[in-house]
Amino acid sequence: MAEDSIQKQIRAGGSAGRPDGIGGTFGFIADTDRMRAFDRESAAIVPEMILMEQAGGAMAREMLRDIQSIPGRPGFCILAGPGHNGGDALVAARHIIRDGYPVEVFYLHPSKEDQLLSDMLTALDRDRSRVHALRKDSRDQGWVRLCEFLEAREPEASSWVLVDGFLGSGISRPLFPAQSETGPKAAHSGPELNHGMERLVKIWNSWPGRRYALDVPSGSSEKASPRWPVLQADVTLAVQFPRRYLYRPQIRKFAGDIRTITIGFPPSRQEALIASYPGKEAALTDTGLSELLTPRMLRQLVPPLPADAHKGVRGKVEVYAGSQGMTGAARLSASASLHASAGLVKLYNADPSVLDAASAGDPSLMTGILSPDGFQPGTWGTAALAGPGWGQKKDQRKDQSGILASLGASSLPLLLDADALQLAAADAELKILLARREPALIMTPHPGEAAALLNTDTQEILQDPLTAAGKIAQSFQAAVVITSSLSYLADEKGHSAVLDASNPALGTAGSGDCLGGIISALLGRGLNAWDALRAGVLIHSEAGRRCFAALGFFTSAELLPRVGQIIGELQFGGVDQ
């Protein structure tokens, strides 16, 4: 998609229309460094206090709107720290008090230089709030009082809302050191305070009532390791551009429902930030921005077919898949291509029995037998898919490598999945061939396959899958999605994206084979690699959502009719989500 189209698409996915600005902001998430610079540049145009007032006010309105379902008038326990997060929390406290709700504020005493927060605390005292000071040194008993306050209210937890405005995204140390922690010391020092913080995290994270995090859950940061303690949130109210690290697996589970609050940042700064995102001629660098994918983007990504389109116009997909015991992978990937609007799909294998078994239930599939003197891969279709269900038997490796070499040298857009990825990871010559090819290359590894491609371990991939996807994209000059509970996408031009649509029902045998087939069909229709990848991931996710809503847990074969339904809706108006 050309750069101007990307910008139009992003702007079309802006605010969801709520009066206080709840909704997506141009479909972007940003890393901490990018947001820190954005905040500095914005504060030079709009006074910091005004931005803080708008953020805290919007956060208060969103929380008050949420709790209308709670009987009576619940109380708010607000934890406020230094900096913008603490300021947002104190502004939110003032708005909540003025709406008549009881509020208890526990705040980390601001430094002498932070006159703004000091003035805000003084104002809260006048507003009838119960204000309790917390100090950084280990002699302070405020942390104990906070824990005792919460413990005393646990029997009526549904009547108390916890609000975390304690620490922002810039921390470089854990809230307290775990027993196994051998790295940096805790963000606060002293055994008494560390014990108090550990006690607080246990109470907070087991709280049965509603919990909010302002901008980010405290304890989370770009530098956080999986061992770092984090305050759990049911809802995270992220300001303007949610922090990209919130979507890492080890942090995402603490953030709950991530909602974006748009406030009065200068439009000129927002436009400048968006303009830095890669376009068609982008440099191969990470700009600190990533797209947050939503189904409404599909209308821009998948243009309708002409009314007089025939099967030849709709694309022809060559599928190289299946082996003894894994014929289902071949059938699912090939059938998914047909449901995703491919006009013709031909399944290739050297074993006739595999072809017979894979195509037995779907007479729409064409088949072709591979032989040393027969068909040359990459010469029939408009796109190719290789790898699903190939298996990793040594006696098959040579033939599989030959197929990949032929496809790599062909002019077809190519998608590599499953066992083809393992071959690409292990064969240096094949890697060079794939990286140098001109036609589009898409790779769809799960975390274990991504680890093989980068010669690392799975845990390293899971710590930051988006960065890992970018490294694979650069290494192979490809568009890549690492699939787990979330999907992490990147390409060689510097684009990146996250799909935050966890659905445990999609974690079923054959789900990835269906995804490969969907994307291959879109490639065969003529979509570029980045558009085909984003659209395929969205269609697969939306099909899974509909299946789960209708059937509960499902089999991968039950996804296929939903895929066709979604493609049909795109043909006649679009998917509205």
Name the features.
single chain; alpha/beta; 11-stranded mixed sheet; 43% helix; 14% strand; elongated; disordered N terminus
Quick gist of this model?
It contains 21 helices and 18 strands. It is of the alpha/beta class and 577 residues long.
Question: How are the elements arranged and paired?
Answer:
Blueprint: H1 3-12, E1 28-30, H2 32-43, H3 48-66, E2 75-80, H4 83-98, E3 103-108, H5 115-126, E4 130-134, H6 142-153, E5 160-165, H7 191-205, E6 211-214, E7 235-239, H8 249-255, E8 257-261, H9 267-275, E9 289-292, H10 298-301, E10 316-320, H11 327-339, E11 344-349, H12 352-359, E12 366-369, E13 383-386, H13 394-409, E14 414-416, H14 419-426, H15 428-436, E15 441-443, H16 447-454, H17 458-463, H18 465-476, E16 479-483, E17 487-490, E18 496-499, H19 511-525, H20 529-551, H21 559-571
Main β-sheet description:
11 strands, mixed
Mean pLDDT, nearest integer?
87
Give the end-to-end Cα distance, rounded to a whole number of Å: 22 Å
Radius of gyration: 26 Å
| Broad shape | elongated
Beta-strand percent range = 5-15%
Tell me which oligomeric state these chains represent: single chain
Helix content: 40-55%
**Sequence of strands across the biggest β-sheet:** 1-9-18-17-16-15-14-13-10-11-12
Give the structural class: alpha/beta
- Low-pLDDT runs of 5+ residues are 1-26, 179-184, 188-192, 279-285
Task: Give an overview in words.
The longest helix has 23 residues, at 529-551. The chain has 577 residues and is of the alpha/beta class. Residues 1-26, 179-184, 188-192 and 279-285 have low confidence and may be disordered. The protein has an 11-stranded mixed β-sheet with strand order 1-9-18-17-16-15-14-13-10-11-12, sandwiched between helices. It has a 7-stranded parallel β-sheet with strand order 4-3-2-5-6-7-8, sandwiched between helices. The chain has helices at residues 3-12, 32-43, 48-66, 83-98, 115-126, 142-153, 191-205, 249-255, 267-275, 298-301, 327-339, 352-359, 394-409, 419-426, 428-436, 447-454, 458-463, 465-476, 511-525, 529-551, 559-571, and strands at 28-30, 75-80, 103-108, 130-134, 160-165, 211-214, 235-239, 257-261, 289-292, 316-320, 344-349, 366-369, 383-386, 414-416, 441-443, 479-483, 487-490, 496-499. α3 (48-66) crosses α4 and α11 (327-339) packs across α12 (352-359).
